[in-house]
Design a protein that fits this description.
282 residues, alpha/beta, Rossmann fold, five-stranded parallel β-sheet, 9 helices, 45% helix
Length: 282
């Protein structure tokens, strides 16, 4: 039996947590970790088995994603302002996509969640207590899988895919180094350090992402199988949920999905700064 849904803090007012019948599954990892590939494989696997799914991720809000992308292209935002932009993007998706989908019994697959956003902010100098408070509205996921990949392998994968390194994923806005390659390595090491610090507090399952996509997917499926089987009555109900999806409002296409042929799928102690921070709402 899965634990009841909870928020990390006060959450969103008016949400009846006992009505959220679906599961929120998060896959975290840097660009080049294979995260998005694994999400796609999981979605197809789940839908073949009759589980309706919804995908969410960073910068996919209809409310602010376009403005956020424009601001990032111009590098015109301060660190706190950038964090609040991302928080608005997250809150909009949480209220208008994730919670309705969970209420309808969907499996919500999150291509990154608040942990990436907190790690990025802290590495850029934002106070940990402040950024944790910003994201206290978040739901506690049913599972979080962090794909850990060495920075050097991340470099190789990114260059193989894009031929260049991303400005933001290299931490060039905070100038770890004037050399983008060196900056990327150092920035990703700092991000991984923050994830390691958060791991025990937030209950991550760390998966070795240096391996082949097939091996990573096999481990993810084995873990998720346990989660789904732990949901009382879900296996018996899933066909009913799947058959009733035509009566469920389909998620709106996001700005980030436009033009991509996207079709909504309805089918040790941690460091002190991470201790006793998010008090789970009962």
């Amino acid at each position: 039996m899965l634990k009841p849904k909870r928020f990390y803090g006060k959450g969103i007012p008016g949400v009846a947590l006992d009505q959220l019948r679906g599961q929120l599954i998060v896959v975290e990892g840097a660009d080049g970790s294979g995260r998005s590939t694994q999400i796609d494989l999981l979605r197809n696997w789940l839908e073949r088995r009759g589980y309706p799914t919804v995908n969410v991720g960073l910068r996919r809000s209809m409310l602010v994603s376009r403005e956020l992308e424009q601001a990032m292209r111009g590098n015109i935002l301060g660190t706190r302002t950038l964090s609040l932009f991302y928080a608005t993007d997250f809150a909009d998706q949480l209220e208008n996509l994730m919670i309705p989908a969970l209420r309808s019994g969907f499996v919500v697959l999150a291509d990154r969640y608040i942990y990436t956003l907190m790690a990025r902010a802290i590495v850029r100098g934002v106070e940990p207590a402040w950024i944790r408070d910003v994201y206290s509205i978040a739901l506690v996921p049913d599972a979080v899988f962090y794909l850990a990949v060495s920075p050097k392998i991340l470099v190789e994968r990114n260059l193989r895919k894009h031929a260049v390194l991303d400005y933001w994923e290299s931490g060039m806005d905070v100038r770890r180094s004037s050399n983008m390659y060196a900056s990327f390595i150092e920035y990703q090491r700092q991000i991984q350090k923050e994830f390691q610090a958060m791991q025990q507090h937030y209950g991550f399952e760390t998966i070795n992402g240096n391996r082949s996509p097939r091996a990573v997917q096999k481990e993810l499926r084995a873990n998720i199988e346990v989660i789904l089987n732990g949901k009382s009555g879900l296996i018996e109900e899933r066909r009913n949920v799947s058959n009733s999806t035509q009566r469920i409002a389909r998620p709106t296409r996001t700005l980030a999905d436009r033009g991509k042929g996207y079709q909504p799928r309805v089918s040790g102690q941690p460091p002190a700064r991470y201790r006793a921070t998010h008090r789970f709402s009962e």
